[in-house]
Design goal:
Strand 9 (206-210) and strand 10 form a beta hairpin. This protein folds into three domains: 3-90, Winged helix-like DNA-binding domain superfamily/Winged helix DNA-binding domain (Arc Repressor Mutant, subunit A); 94-163 and 270-302, D-Maltodextrin-Binding Protein, domain 2; 164-269, 3-Layer(aba) Sandwich (D-Maltodextrin-Binding Protein, domain 2). 43% of the residues lie in helices and 22% in strands. The strands form five sheets. Strands 4-3-5-15-6 form a five-stranded mixed sheet. Strands 7, 12, 13 and 14 form a four-stranded antiparallel sheet that branches. The chain has 303 residues and is of the alpha+beta class. Helix 1 packs across helix 2 (21-28) and helix 1 (3-18) crosses helix 4 (62-90).
């Protein structure tokens, strides 16, 4: 059955229950002439006259009465089902599982969690921390959170942050001792703090770009760890140059414990995206979270 068929039957029931076109039109929020055209289409489709009209009242024909008695319970059931879904949406419960990197959870998810919990107190958000590129289906999560450049093509991605920069930083102590690199190639002559991808086990390559020139290189140094806190402490203590997402190192920069180097070589790249398989239905909990984040971001843009 088409949606227009349901609309026509609903209009017919409204007329029978309210006794004339004018009252039914007012209840439906349409003009009497538009309602009359709707009934004409219904009668033409069914091939029978359904209503007898006088100047003061409208009553169903025998065929119309039979149709009314069959249709009215079905329409009430449809209305009740819709009302139940809306009520459930207002009182959503259950669990929302999101697989996220540590940086993504801290800088893209955490700012929304308090307001989301206030809006949907029945939903429990569980954040599964993993710096590997996890398959959200295999990890039994509703969605994942990663940098946009890491998303697979069959995933639906929803932006959760502004574009971000990977930046190279060092402490004033280190730069006073070793000098400041002016070009990414100069990093080969410096002590660098390395990290290794949790998935695959290969070293993380530092990437730079300036005026159409791209540089991607592996660095060397006395420390290799994926732990952000350890690398930040090593930079602060003057061990060497580190490479971080800009939000991770803002604290050191604002405190003067580190300064950015090669600034012109660090352009903005796609930020964090919440992603989920495009061939799966979105759960009500995930839909609520996506809508909540979109509304908050729109409010920020408007202000």
């Amino acid at each position: 059955m088409k949606g227009s068929d349901v609309a026509e039957l609903s209009a017919f029931v409204a007329i029978v229950e309210r006794g004339n076109f004018a009252r039914a039109a007012g209840w439906l929020g349409v003009s009497p002439s538009a309602l009359s055209q709707t009934i004409q289409r219904l009668e033409a489709r069914l091939g029978q006259r359904l209503l007898n009209r006088t100047t003061r009242t409208t009553r169903p024909t025998e065929a119309g009465q039979q149709l009314y008695e069959r249709v009215r319970p079905a329409l009430k059931e449809i209305s009740a089902a819709q009302a139940q879904l809306l009520e459930q949406q207002d009182e959503l419960g259950g669990r929302l599982r999101i697989n996220a990197s540590r940086a993504g959870a801290a800088y893209a998810l955490a700012p929304h969690l308090a307001s989301f919990a206030e809006t949907y107190p029945g939903i429990e958000v569980e954040i599964v921390i993993s710096d590997r590129l996890e398959n959200v289906v295999a990890s039994e999560c509703d969605a994942g959170l990663r940098l946009g450049e890491s998303l697979e093509q069959d995933m639906v991605g929803v932006p959760m942050s502004e574009p971000l920069r990977w930046i190279a930083v060092a402490s004033p102590l280190y730069l006073a001792r070793a000098g400041t690199p002016e070009h990414p190639a100069a990093l080969k002559e410096h002590t660098c703090i390395n990290m290794r991808w949790p998935s695959g086990g290969h070293l993380f390559h530092w990437e730079f770009e300036c005026e159409g020139q791209s540089v991607r290189l592996a660095v060397t140094g006395p420390l290799c760890t994926h732990d952000v806190a350890t690398r930040l402490r090593a930079v602060k203590d003057g061990l060497g140059i580190g490479y971080f997402l800009e939000p991770e190192v803002r604290g050191l920069l604002s405190a003067g414990d580190a300064v950015e180097v090669l600034e012109s070589w660090c352009p903005r790249e796609p930020g964090f995206y919440l992603y989920y398989p495009g061939n799966r239905l979105v759960t009500p909990q995930l839909r609520a979270f996506l809508d909540h984040v979109a509304a908050r971001r729109q409010k920020v843009v408007a202000t």
